[in-house]
Amino acid sequence: MAGKLIVISNRIPSEAAPSGGLVFALHETLRKTGGIWIGSHPDIADKPSETLSEYGEQGEYSRFSFTLSQSDYEEFYLGFSNSVLWPVCHRRGDLVELNRGFEEGYARVNARLARQVVKVAGPDDMIWVHDYHFFPLASELRKLGYTGKIGFFLHIPFPALGDMGALPRAANLPHWLADYDLVGLQTRADVARCLEMFRAESDAEFMMDGTVKCGSRTVAVRSFPIGIDVETFVKAAQERTEQDKLADDMAGDLVIGVDRLDYSKGLPNRFRAFGRYLETRDERERRVSMVQIAPPSREEVAAYRELRYELEELVGRVNGEHGEIDWTPLRYIHRNLDRGLLARLYRRARVGIVTPFADGMNLVAKEYIAAQDPENPGVLVLSHMAGAAEDLTDALLVNPYDIEDMSEALKTALAMPLDERKRRYASCMKKVRETDVSNWSRKYVQALKSCPATLPVRSAP
Ligand code: GDG
């Protein structure tokens, strides 16, 4: 590559060797190519600077951060990103909170970030922007005359045209996206929704090579299904520590769920389905317990707080109705657990349950598969609405709105014979390996590199 790679994401790890899927993959990519990683500083500043600052340990590549003020945090991060774009992309228009301040904050932070980025980016560099916090960043960079290649990757679902109606008029997704050279999405279904959006634009033309021409700009829209760092996870799941004796002591079979506490993840219906399963099971069968790890997330947003109360009530109800003196069927942990322990819990669990209403990919589904013992694997029960269902077609696919369907799938999974479990595991594991996160970043960077250069501005002045 002639120039350097510049990665921009909301979060940036401060440590020299970060662990964990996406962060690890971006770190490895940058280590190989050299370049810059830019992300927001965790501290709030009174007056955000116009220039980036060095952040954390500098190694084979540079790390820079930008700071947010309190109003940036409230309007750009909690507001427009997480109370407008997140619900719209996850089909929850009812949870959208519109507020002119949110729009202004989003525009202000993106415009300032573009001014900061052009100070470190040259025309031969490639900029790779991550996620919904930065949809308009390419437009802002183009306004400043930046002519280099800019790619975007959306980690969450691309919204349906109908759901975009809940966005304020200032949110001009087609024009924001046309200023990128490559728009990467998780699944083929996301690509179809994105193209449908462009089809509704009067100035968009569809080219023979699959790209979309908008004014003088040409943008490619392709899917790049993300995955996990498979080998590290396989190893972590096999390790044993003193602490794990606890997991072995848990009587009966285990069903595991691991999700940030987010309304897109379908947790209340999952708990109801487990309650329904307990109601219908034969008392003489082995006891089955569900462990749900749900670390806190975005608690400053009202919808997240309300979900927490709803879950606490449901856990109480399920345990009250079905628990015994010596058995708590539903164990709910509202804390962040160690990653190694998670991997080992996945391996111990007969069933992994992942039931979002909408999810860009869902890495937990892939982690559960990677953690299994190939000789005696557990079964993944997976919502057909998670992006991962496009890859993992041999999981037990369920409808997350259908409590009975999920409860029956739990029963099927728990009773599944070994040969069928092995067959389904082998098929899913093949996909998990194919989409390993290092392949994902390599393929994306390669595709961005091969995009032909087009004019930097959308339309002639
Ligand atoms: C977004 C998209 C897309 C969870 N609890 C703990 C913990 N986790 C880890 C999991 C997994 C990660 O967090 C969650 O990743 P997901 O993919 O499931 O979901 P989002 O956070 O919503 O991520 C999603 C992803 O971006 C990547 O593109 O797949 O669709 O929404 O790795 O294991 N990790 C630790 N303790 C916990 O308690 N250590």
UniProtKB/TrEMBL annotation:
A Pfam short name: Glyco_transf_20
Designated name of the protein: Trehalose 6-phosphate synthase
Biological process (GO), any one: trehalose biosynthetic process
SUPFAM superfamilies attached to this UniProt entry: UDP-Glycosyltransferase/glycogen phosphorylase
Signal peptide: none
InterPro entries cross-referenced by the UniProt entry: Glyco_trans_20
Stated family: Belongs to the glycosyltransferase 20 family.
GO molecular function terms noted in the UniProt entry: alpha,alpha-trehalose-phosphate synthase (UDP-forming) activity
Organism field: Sulfitobacter delicatus
